[in-house]
Amino acid sequence: xxxxxxxxxxxxxxxxxxxxxxxxxxxxxxxxxxxxxxxxxxxxxxxxxxxxxxxxxxxxxxxxxxxxxxxxxxxxxxxxxxxxxxxxxxxxxxxxxxxxxxxxxxxxxxxxxxxxxxxxxxxxxxxxxxxxxxxxxxxxxxxxxxxxxxxxxxxxxxxxxxxxxxxxxxxxxxxxxxxxxxxxxxxxxxxxxxxxxxxxxxxxxxxxxxxxxxxxxxxxxxxxxxxxxxxxxxxxxxxxxxxxxxxxxxxxxxxxxxxxxxxxxxxxxxxxxxxxxxxxxxxxxxxxxxxxxxxxxxxxxxxxxxxxxxxxxxxxxxxxxxxxxxxxxxxxxxxxxxxxxxxxxxxxxx
Length: 350
Prior knowledge:
Elements: H1 9-14, H2 20-32, E1 37-44, E2 55-56, H3 60-67, E3 73-76, E4 82-83, E5 88-95, H4 96-99, H5 103-127, E6 131-134, H6 145-155, E7 159-160, H7 163-169, H8 179-185, H9 188-198, E8 205-208, H10 215-226, E9 230-235, H11 239-242, H12 245-258, E10 265-269, H13 274-280, E11 286-289, H14 291-294, E12 301-308, E13 311-312, E14 323-328, E15 333-338
Parallel strand pairs: 6-7, 6-11, 8-9, 9-10, 10-11
Antiparallel strand pairs: 1-5, 1-12, 2-4, 3-5, 12-13, 14-15
Helix pairs in contact: 3-5, 5-6, 5-13, 6-7, 8-9, 9-10, 10-12
C-alpha cells in the first residue's frame, strides 16, 4: 500500500520536517564546539486580523511529545488558556543542540492548533449557550483531522464530527444525515425514517430538509412522520437558494410550533462564521461550523533566544531575558515582567 504524503511521529521527532538551516546550524555548533545553554521563548507579535483581541493556546500536548526525554525545562500556559499578543506562552531552557533543531515542528504544533482554537472561541462567544459543533474535517488533510477537531473542542465546540477526533477528546462523534443518503433513497421523509429504523436510539434524529423541496414543507413532513422522536431539523441550504435565510428559519420555526412541534430544534450548517452566528442565534438552536473553523489562519508564533548561558540577549525587535507572565484576575490584564519579579496591577484591585 502506498503511503499518504505525510510525516509520521518518528520522522517529525527525528527532524525530517525541520527547515534545513536548523540542521546545518546544529552541524556547525557541534563541529566548532560552540553550542550554548539557551532560553528560548515563544510569543505572538500580533493576531491575523485587527478584530482579534485574544487567543486560545493549543497544541502544547503535541509539542511536549516532541520534547519527551530531552534534558530541557519547559514552562508554558496550560492548553485552553486565554492569551494576548506580545506575551510569552512557552519558555524552553536547555542546550541548544537538545531542542533547537525542533523549532519548525514546535511552532507548527502550536501555530495551527492555536489558530483553530482561537477561531472556535470566537464562534463560541458568538453562539453563547447555543450548540456549537466542528464540521470542518473535510476541509483539511485527513491525517490531521483529529488535531483540528481537538483544537476546535479546546476552543469551545461542544462536539466534533469524525470518529478519530471524537475518540481523541473522549466524546461521541456528532452527525446528522447527509444529502447522499436522501438522494439515494429519493425522499427526505423516507431517508429519515430509514435512519430512525437502523441507527441506535442514543443518536439524536436530526433531519436534513434542504435536498429536494422547500424547507418549511420538508420540516412539517418529517416532524409529522417522526413526532417526538425527531430532535431537530438541519438546514444546509446553499447560498444560491438562501435569500433572506433568517426569515426562512423563522418561517420554519413558526410552522413547527403552530403544529405542536416546539421540541424540534433548528440546526444550521454551511458557510458559517462568528458573524453569521451572531446574526442567526436568536432563531437557531445549534450550529455546525466547517471551513471557517478548520481552515482558520495559523497564529504567527515565533521562537527566539532570549538568554545564553544565563545572560540576557535577543535579536533586534525582541526583548531579552527570561520573563514571567502575571495576570490580574480582577481586570483580566496581563503583565510581562522579568523572571521572578512581581508587579501590582494598575487597576489597584490586585
